[in-house]
Write a structure and sequence with these properties.
Layout: H1 2-24, H2 26-29, E1 32-37, H3 45-58, E2 62-67, H4 78-83, E3 89-92, H5 94-100, H6 116-124, H7 129-139, E4 141-156, E5 172-175, H8 179-187, E6 191-194, H9 200-206, E7 211-214, H10 216-221, E8 230-246, H11 247-252, H12 255-289, E9 293-295, H13 299-311, H14 323-329
Helix pairs in contact: 3-12
Bound molecules: 3-deoxy-alpha-D-manno-oct-2-ulopyranosonic acid (KDO).
Length: about 325
Amino acid sequence: METTLSRRSVVAAAAAASLTAFAGSSFAQEKVKLRLSSPSSATDQRAVALTSVFAPAVADFATFEPHWNAALFKQGTELEAISRGNLDMSIASAQELAEFFPEFSIFSAGYLHKDAAHQKRVFESDLFQPFKKMVEDKLGVKLLTVMYLGRRQLNLRTDKKINTPEDLAGIKLRMPGSEAWMFLGRALGANPTPMAFTEVYTGLQTGAIDGQDNPLPTNRDAKFFEVTKQIVLTSHLVDLNYLTISKKVFDKLSPANQARLQKAADDAAESGRQKQLKLEDELVQFFKDKGLQVYTPNVDAFRARVQKAYLESDLSKSWPKGLVEKINAL
Ligand code: KDO
């Protein structure tokens, strides 16, 4: 019995040793690990698209390892982590990029992108190329593709009806913690309060904040409807995130695998975009059924105030001359 056992363990040890040897071979080394950190939940359509479209398409040369709910890095710290070589991928916002490159705030401006298709045209146009290059050269981060997050709407735990920006006076509106986000909160007429996405549910539940803004699919995924009373359809930001990868990691791949990874990223973004658009259409009824008031305010009043605030701001001083007009013309 003892002999059998010890033989078994020798066989097991040998198998383990040969596995280790295999892992050290050049063949195994070709499989790169892609660790992504994001505050998104695993049910967010971008997360779903990355695990169901991106991961299988790169599986024979890369292992995609996502960490949702900001499990690995705090919201807003991912780009620095990639830059320092501690993380491989993220889903970054223009607002986060504006912390490094102020001119990126143009892509975070309220009422700039018209819709998901316009957002994609902007990303793919020549005018975006210098922005991409700047992030690659200075941060070592490659912006692979643009992911549609959706139209951001106000979602409040208060009862008072909101028709114009003036009605938001004194409302503590949670915004993600960066200057470009805070600016948007002020431009809407509210009193912005910075808070990480993962803390928003509790913030609403306890009354630390009066409201938050996010697209309808996010409001469902994060269950904000359980702790709020109304959704005001301001559509103040057609929001986006860029799927990013460390340039160092990307450059180590063969040209063929780089092309496959790029295609996988674009396919995942397209799949997420279509699902997100469909959900935005369907979810108004879902929230009404949950007992929330869902209505459209005076959007023209919001648009006029927000656009004026940006154009008169210091933020817009960093925007390349004539770029707003070129974006509008796309
Ligand atoms: C949020 O914190 O409100 C936000 O919507 C900001 C986005 O840029 C993005 O980080 C998003 O959160 C997360 O992916 C969670 O959906």
